[in-house]
Amino acid sequence: MKIKRFTAESMREAIRKVRDTWGPDAVILSNKKLGNGVEITAAIDFEEEEVEKLAAEMAQAPAATEAPVQPTRPATTPLVNQAMPTRPEAATQRQAATYASPPSSQTSSLLNPHPAPGSPTTASPDLLSDLRQEISDLRGLIEGELTQMAWREIGQRNPRKAALMHKLNNLGLKRELCTKLVSQNAIHEDDDAAWKQALIELSSMLVEGDHQLLETGGTYAIIGSTGVGKTTTVAKLAAQYALRHGTDKIGLITTDCFRIGGVDQLSTFGKLFDIPVFLATDRLELSDILDQLSDKDLILIDTAGMSQRDMELSKQLATLTGAGHDIQFYLTLSATAQQAITSEIMRVFSDIKLAGTVVTKVDEAASLGGVLNALITYQLPTFFISNGQKVPEDLHLGSAIELVKIARDLLQRTGSHQPIIDPETTRPSKHSTSTHEEKRLHG
What we know:
Elements: E1 2-8, H1 11-22, E2 27-33, E3 38-44, H2 48-60, H3 80-83, H4 88-100, H5 105-111, H6 125-157, H7 159-170, H8 175-184, H9 191-204, H10 213-216, E4 218-223, H11 230-245, E5 250-254, H12 262-273, E6 277-279, H13 283-292, E7 298-302, H14 313-321, E8 328-334, H15 339-349, E9 356-360, H16 369-378, E10 382-386, E11 395-397, H17 400-412, H18 434-442
Parallel strand pairs: 4-7, 4-8, 5-6, 5-7, 8-9, 9-10
Antiparallel strand pairs: 1-3, 2-3, 10-11
């Protein structure tokens, strides 16, 4: 672990020195005022053994060697919030709230260098755990403050880029993604030109997929959490394929024996289109049914909707992956889900090899940012986009530029009910050029 003191005329300059020297991983251990400025003591490269050693030293050190600290503040608590307030009154409120709160027992043990007779002289596991958590919290706090400083600096140096970053943030994109897009954006005198370039750059971060399902068929399982529209998506896909190639080459399978009426919903659709529907309750049944349907060009498997936190989910995924057939998996994502939920769903279902995604309920969404963040993070293509309940017309081929266009349109909507997908402009595109993307964005 490296420890160093930084002095400057102001707290802002001292923190800037820490950031320039050690980056965002540095941790502020203490700070104090000098006659003509401030002094910050910072550290970096914390290892578990060093954390334990530091905690033990802090618990055993005599009072004479203790750095001056506030009576109710641990030595490792930074004064970043006080050093860089956005408003003076905000800093005053934070100081009042900090000093008004009583110290916890762990904090008191850190501040009391002379333990009572009979008390242990080494740091307890709980104290070490709290110290590690505090260090982690302080690191996150510093990173957040430095990011805020970066945003303010961009706004002061280049108001156009600040406006662009604000607009990208309104799309629902993560802050680091907004910063990356702004840094890559050329300087434009026209705000509209900068906005269009940023959208094109955003679309280039998304992965394009080969739209082969409706042309060549195959075996596909539509998976996802509860209520995202998996059964309706299966019906739309089967109906669109039937309109192109007929119904005699389609087979439908459902593993949804948990939801009341789950089998009946798909069976009713199968009867309307004269498509056979089979129920598979385990891996062996699924394998046998797939063997029976080997003469079909397209086999769609509707799966039971389960929470990403359901312990039974792993069993269902094992049933699908263990059937012994070449099954491709489409993960269904709802555009209305919270961003954190979408990321969690993507992480859990990525335990199996995913071919791509189907984005549903875009007609009900207020933003597409959560979906875009997840697709960029996990680099998965979107094959289809659903924007309604109508079978089969409310299902469109997905593409990177189409997703960005929908996200832009959702941002521009002000309560009107215009459609956010134009069927005339929805075409599969394997190799989109910048000129083509600009035309689509203009549309």
